[in-house]
Amino acid sequence: MAVAPRLAALTEQLLGAALPLRLRAWDGSETGPPGGPVIVVRHRRALRRLLFKPGELGLARAWVAGEIDVEGDLYAALGLLLAPIQAERDIPPRQKLTIARELVRLAGPAAPVPPPPPREEVARRTGPLHSLRRDRQAISHHYDVGNAFYELVLGPSMVYSCAVWDDDTDTLEAAQTAKLDLICRKLGLREGQRLLDVGCGWGSLVLHAARHYGVRAVGVTLSEEQAVYARERVAKQGLGHLVEIRVQDYRETADGPFDAISSVGMAEHVGAARYREYAERLYGLLRPGGRLLNHQIARPPRADESSYRVDPFIDAYVFPDGELAPVGRTVTLLERAGFEVRDVESLREHYALTLRRWVHNLEARRAEATRLAGAGRARVWRLYMAASALSFERAGIGVNQVLAVRLPVAGGPGLPLRPRAWTERGTVQERTQRPERPERQQPAAPARAQAQEQPH
Prior knowledge:
This protein is an alpha/beta fold. Helices cover 42% and strands 14% of the residues.
């Protein structure tokens, strides 16, 4: 009997529903509804992976190794498959045994031997969870894969977080500039203030803040490759008198107080067990009345929070040791650390648009991406970004900017009476097309006495 119908029958037993798209097997046989995307099982080794790691991790390994692929619209295929795969249907033990026996027959004589994981899978992690050493290992796995690869995916902005879109925004670069400027306005940055950017990436935010707001900015990252790239950008733009890039954990930063702190797409790496420590550490680095902008991906709350498990594909291939929390928990822990939370803005739909642009960049230059990072790494990125875009679109996950203030507020004009006024203060183009500030040989004097100024 041809392989494809047998695979389809097994898949339908696992999903508890009819296979929603066409399937092609390694012997050339096909089955399923025509006219849509096609799942291609290129090698029987994919079935061996499922035998030893049933579920999402086995499928992910087969995808990364190129043993499973999609022909046609990847978004459409994932949209049809994600919900039933993630449902984790409870299959009776006798049916599981029947499925396993059929998988063994289809997998061939090598089935008793587990295939080694693709080399892109994170190596064995050492040390306690979210210790300084282990966090450095996790960050290096994801970010130290070549700056040229990130340039290809992220585009000229080199911003690896959710952009902010308007109806008339037509480029990813404009949307990322809008996000950077929105953060600066929410933080109320003024010339001469000190800004700490926790998890500064390739330096885009500190460069924007220094060039357009005249702040003295410190960016910290655990990625050596990011730091090298960011320092080159600082030097090229002549902002060395205002911007410092450090390879440093935020827990090792000790030269506060800062007038403002930004943490954009970094808190997801902190972990639930360490989040209170994270919030208290940032609180201690701010001056009284200083502002924190915490930009963080969130998941929906669960009735039983103890049932939350990190996504196995993301943990093994994308963000090792990363954890998502509901936005309510984030707000609560910031408040317990002493912050007053002043504004929470959801940007969920914006991240879906951003991810689709990143996927487009990758697919438009897939051969070059493969050359730069390897076929497996390029496949990891394509799958995780496309699946994440769908999750944001369907509210499976969200992203929020939380603006908080360190108490006590030491006088001064404070925040605007209507905090969202920062979204009404002219366009980003008006702000960023003004004449550049003249370079100064010496850093501007600190302006800590100006507590809580109105946003620019």
